[in-house]
Design brief:
The protein is of the alpha/beta class. About 40% of the residues lie in helices and about 20% in strands. It is built from 17 helices and 13 strands. Helix 3 packs across helix 6, helix 11 runs parallel beside helix 12 and helix 11 crosses helix 14. It is globular. About 35% of the residues are buried.
Length: about 425
């Protein structure tokens, strides 16, 4: 009879079955990774490593724990268990260090993906989006996902009695987190769009539909100073825009609107607030976020109205990550209004997520499909394929449809012409 050791070391006869089992097990416990990531963000781990790592870029968990407000003697070993999981998913790098007493400890550094969880004045932060992924108060709706198949109507409203935007807007803490997450994500993607898309060259007047404070337009005009912008949003949103100097603030959110992604307010935060205890940013913002309202950017006119009634005229009308919040009917109504407002040789610029026709297992395909299910649960909208956007374009009276470029392999920049 073979020994137990030989049995243990004997290769599996069916590796494919083993791999399938392990994959299924990982999916069954997949909720743990984002919760560990959230804890690492709340503990400020990524910022600690970024600011205090040694010349090799690594820190031990004892060194990291020494920067935390804890007297727990087990903190380093507990932290190691969390960071080991993050490293196994390439969110951190890891190396082995042998101590003078013979002990072996793991050291941790930042991976390329980890830089998006380090806060800095240049933006590029996704920590707020990670924290938003599991809002405790609004998580109940996901346990009713099957009801979206079995019953009619908007799932979120069926569960809570009000829309997602209304729910988030009624909770200042959740609303602040939501707005910051959307603004942080928008800042990253718009910077990349301007690196890739050259369609603003030669444009004189850009209308940004559901543009909030005008921060996106300001980013465009900063690169193309000859452009004049019209920031178009609901009247109560535009009314909040004040003359506070843009140089002294950094936008944190689009506003509430039934059109887009923000909720109830459009807020801006002084830059120095970002330097205050990152791991407690939600609580800091609650106290300070209303101290300074919005501001007026040079070269931008703020116009209030309803995009389902009319849109200001321009030679370029931009709709950025708005369509996926809404049904096809709503999108067609909006695009028809854009068509009417567009100058003859102008163009509508849609920046939105693009679904692939065929199912793929790439990270890009997984992300867009994940967002699609998020729209299903929370807003009743959906992500669309290129063909579906083309159909919306045709139904809205446009004669030309072009996907000009892709950003991060998930966002498409689309031009529509009369």
């Amino acid at each position: 009879m073979a020994s137990k050791e030989n049995q243990w070391n004997k290769p599996s006869i069916n590796k494919e079955d083993d791999d399938a089992f392990l994959y299924a097990m990982l999916l069954s416990t997949s909720h743990i990774l984002p919760m560990v990531l959230n804890a690492a963000i709340e503990l400020n781990v990524f910022d600690i490593i970024a600011s205090r790592a040694n010349v090799d870029g690594y820190m031990s968990t004892s060194e990291i724990a020494s920067q935390l407000p804890t007297k727990n003697p087990d903190a380093p070993s507990l932290l190691d268990r969390m960071l080991r999981l993050l490293a196994s998913h390439s969110l951190l790098t890891s190396s082995i260090h042998t101590c003078e007493d013979g002990r072996v400890e793991r050291l941790y550094g930042l991976s390329p993906a980890a830089k998006f969880y380090v806060q800095n004045e240049d933006g590029g932060y996704l920590g707020s989006l990670a924290l938003l992924s599991f809002p405790r108060k609004a998580a109940e709706v996901w346990f009713h996902l099957k009801d979206a198949i079995l019953e009619e109507g908007n799932l979120f409203k069926n569960v809570y009695g009000i829309s997602c935007f209304q729910y988030f807007g009624a909770d200042p803490t959740l609303n602040t987190l939501f707005n910051k997450a959307m603004a942080d994500l928008s800042g990253i993607t718009m910077k990349k769009v301007l690196e890739t898309y050259k369609g603003f060259e030669g444009v004189s007047l850009v209308v940004d539909v559901a543009g909030g404070t005008g921060a996106t337009l300001n980013t465009i005009i900063s690169k193309y100073p000859s452009i004049k912008g019209i920031n178009f949003d609901l009247p109560h949103v535009i009314k909040q825009v004040s003359s506070y100097p843009a140089s002294d603030v950094q936008e944190t959110s689009p506003p509430y609107r039934r059109w887009g992604m923000g909720v109830f307010w459009s807020w801006s935060i002084p830059k120095d607030v970002f330097l205050v205890k990152y791991s407690r940013f939600v609580f800091v913002y609650i106290g300070l976020v209303r101290a300074r309202s919005n501001f007026i950017y040079a070269g931008i006119e703020h116009v209030g109205g309803d995009m389902y009634e009319s849109v200001p005229r321009g030679d370029a009308i931009m709709i950025k990550v708005i369509c996926h919040n809404w049904s096809d009917g709503h999108c067609i109504k909006l695009l028809k209004n854009c068509n009417k407002a567009l100058q003859q040789n102008g163009k509508v610029i849609i920046i939105d997520y693009l679904m692939l026709e065929a199912v793929e297992s790439s990270d890009a395909a997984k992300y867009v499909s994940t967002l699609d299910n998020n729209m299903l649960v929370n807003l009743g909208g959906k992500e669309r394929t290129e063909k579906e956007f083309k159909a919306l374009s045709k139904s809205s009276g446009f004669s030309a449809f072009h996907v000009i470029c892709h950003v991060y392999n998930v966002l498409g920049v689309i031009e529509l012409h009369k």
